[in-house]
Structures are given as structure tokens and as C-alpha cells.
Amino acid sequence: MLFDDVVIESFTEAIPLPPSSEVTALLTHNLPPSDDIRSAVLAEKQQCEHFIFLVNSSGHRLDVKHQSSISVARTETEKLLVDLRSILHPIRSVPDDVLLDIFALIVDSTEASSVSTDTDLWACSRVCQLWRTLILVTPSLWSDVRLDFDDDVDLKYHISRAERVLIERLERSGTQLLDVFVRGPRARPDTNVVLRRLLTSAARWRSLTVNAGPEVYEMFEKCPEGSLTELRTLSITDSVYMDGDFDEEDRYTGVVLEAFRSTPKLRRLFLSPLPLLSLSLYPDAVYNNIQEISINLFDQLPDVSRLLPAMRALKSLDVLCDEGWDGDDDVVRLPLLSRITLRGHNDTRHIPDTWTKLYLPNVTSLQLAYEGIILHPIFPLLDKQNTRITDFACYIDSFADTGYPDFERDLIVMLQSLPNITNLRLSSRRTTPILLEEIRSRTRFLPALTDITLLWKIPSYQVPDDDIHLLIDTLHTRARSATCATVKRIVFELDIALYIGPTPYAFMWEELQNSGLEVIECWEPLSLFCPFGSISHIIDRY
Known about the structure:
Residues 92-146 form the F-box domain. The chain is of the alpha/beta class. Helix content is 38%, strand content 15%. The chain has helices at residues 2-14, 21-25, 35-58, 64-87, 96-108, 120-124, 129-136, 153-157, 159-172, 192-199, 214-220, 239-242, 283-289, 301-310, 350-357, 404-415, 433-441, 465-480, 504-514, 536-539, and strands spanning 144-148, 178-183, 205-211, 233-237, 268-271, 292-296, 316-320, 332-333, 339-345, 358-359, 365-371, 391-397, 423-428, 451-456, 489-493, 518-522. The termini are far apart.
């Protein structure tokens, strides 16, 4: 009995005392502790660790009654230990400029749900006082509103909580203009409460991107009349409908969206699969304001042919080539256009036809996108050299295994008619050794090339070493040639190692970098549109 009393007394004496008020005060902010307080915290931390060690090593020797009380004390001690370690965390001593750089890196890469508190932005607000202050006083950090009804768990199962979080986000955004993204829902009326809450902020929408069915567009018809006066970008699509059976009934026949009629600041319009006639815009917005438009050709070629030449401010055009042109169709003249994107989904035969039917004397940027099941991409036919185009991008997102060697050869044939390209961007699910070999061995092929983007959307371990070596040799050969420009910048995937070990290619790569080659590692898909901006302007004033 005496032994048990001694053991119990040793446990009782080892239980840490509650921390002082100076220590607990540190738990209310993220400022670093003074030297005296740090010493007290370290001593308290050692007491906690000693008590937990004692319980772990000898707690089994106590009777059941005392084991229960000691277990409670251990739980409280473990919680206190977490708090003490947070006070001693190095984040409290990191210089402000370093903290801001880290903050910009984390927040800038965040595309998270707007109705969840389990996101990077919310987590950052708990890291340190500087980050918390920055987040709370910067409305633009809350100006992206993302509602994904298809994948977001909170929008599927916790509608009430999602609505509350959305309300808080809208309040934190202050008077900031909003960039809104909505995907889904499809025939889910219980989500209308969240959409109705979103509509209360319509007067502040700067951009609206919607990928949904007709039932969602009916909700947007409830926007207060004349409230969308700040809208600059409108993107409307229905990917489920586009990927469905073309023989099914057209759900958009006769649909007219009156809500977007009064949008005097609208500059960018992306519309598919809805026909042009579904948007009842004021003529002034259509003919004098819109600078960038994305449309499809299916069942509306006459409307497209009439509308596009009348759009006097149009600079950029994106066309889903889903219908063929008749031989006697007039050429559509677009002398003011500077950028053209032609897309093919499953069937790419109409891309060359569309290129032939467009008169584009001042286009400097040509972008081609092949999506779906593409056995062999078909490229536009250029009957003569085009010396105005300096920017070219080709995006191939297809799982088809055939036709890739021929694809590269056909691409080379087309590129031979574009001698002044300075920026070449290519994204595919295969490497492109034939194209790289052409660029390496014929320095007069694409002689003005200075920027290359190669996004091979395959795991890094599947990229042959020979292709990596060929890429390095290509850049090195061009840098030493007098008949072509030197490539100054290359963009490639983050997880592709350009060399391993002391090989000749490693020395080439080091020489290229020492000579000024800019290397950008990218894990994002090739984007055919310009991003909206970055977070750098937020950090500048701190």
C-alpha cells in the first residue's frame, strides 16, 4: 500500500501547473514571446513532456480509479503541450517580408470552394497575426466566388452551412468586384437557396462563368433588372449537354436570356452550346464593346457570318468548328481581328474549312485545340506563307493512340508556312521527338523562335531520356547557330527532370542557363486565354 501511495504521489506532483497569465496571453495573438516568457514556456513544456512520459511508462501500475483521473490529466496536458509548442513555433520569428512572400505563393495557387472553411485561405488566417490581418483587411482575397454543385461536399450535403459561409465571404469582399464561377446543379432545387443568396451580389459581378443546365440559367433570370452593369466577362456552357447524344432533343431551342441584356461593360463573351440568339444584348454592347467572343457554328452559320463582321471592337475570336461550310458560302472578313482560336471536338474536319472561310489579314496569334476522341488532328491549309503570325499554340487532349507520327509531320508542314513564329506552345499526351528533331537539325525552320512551351501530359517516368536529351540538344544547337534566333525561354512540366548525373547534356543544360535561358516550370494545363491577374498587387502595400 505504501508503494502505491508513493507512486500516486509522484504522478500527482508531476502534473503541470496551469500556465501563467503572461503565457496564456500569447495564445490570443501570434507575436513572438519575450526572452523571459520563452524561458517560462520552455520550462512548462518540459514539465508536460515529463508527465506524459511518466504516464506512458508507469501508468499501468496504478489502480483503475487513479488511472481514470490520471488519464484526464494527461489529455489536458497534451492539449497544453500543443499550445506551448505553438508559442515556440518559428513562424512567430520569421521576418515580415518572408512571410508575405510565402503568403503570396500559397494564396496565388488557390482555387478552392467558397462555401467551405477547410481551404488554404481560411488556414492561412490561423498561421500568424500578420497573415490574419492581411486576410481580414483585404477584400480582394474574398472576391473569387466558386460554387461547384457537382463535386463540392458542402453544397451536396450541408446546404445551410454552405449558405452561411457564402454570406460571410460576400461580406468580407466588401465593395470589391466579384469573379463568379458556378458549375451545376442539374435538377436539384434544394440548392436554389445558395444561388438566390449569390444573386444578391449581382451588381458587383465582374465576371460570370457558368457550366450548367437550363434550370440554372433560369435562376439567373431572377437577377434584379439592370444589376449587371459591372459585368466584363460572361462565359456560358453546358459540358454535360455537349458530351451527350447529338440526336437528343435540343434543350436550348427558344431559350432567351434577358438577364444579360443590359451589360454596358461586357467585353468578353463565351457562349456554347447556346446559340447567339439566346442572348438578348443591346446592339451597342454587341457591335461596339465586345472585344473577345467564343461561339460554336452548329446550326447558326448564317447568324455568325452576319454578326462577326459587324462587331467593330472584336480583337479575339474562339470558334468551335462543329459544322461544315458550303462551298458557295461567302468569306467572312475580319480585318481587325488579332487572335483566332479554332477548336474541334471529336471531329476536326471543319477546322480547315473554317480557316479557309475567314479573311484574317492582321491575325498575329493562331491557336488550335483538338479535344475528345481525335485519331488524327487535321490542320489548316496555308497556300502561302503567313508572315504576320508570331504566336502559335496547339492543344491536343485526346487518348487516341494512332496517328501521332503523321500528326507531327503534318504540323511541321503547316509551321513551314509560319516563318515568323517567336512563341510556340504545344500541349499533348505524347512527346514530340519528330518536331524537336526538325527544330534541331534545320535551324532555318522557325528561325525567329525565342519562346517554347512543351507540356507533355504524361507521368515523368514515362518520358524517354532520349527525348529530354533531344530537347537540350535542340536548345543548345539553336543557341550556337548563326541562322536562327536563340531560344530565351522554355516552359515545361514541373516534375520532368532535364538531366540526371554528369552527362554531356548536363553540361549543355548548365551552359544554356548560364547564358541566360529562362526556365519556367509549369504544372498547369496550356491555357488558350489570358489569366485574370495575380495577387502581387495586394502584397505591394504591406
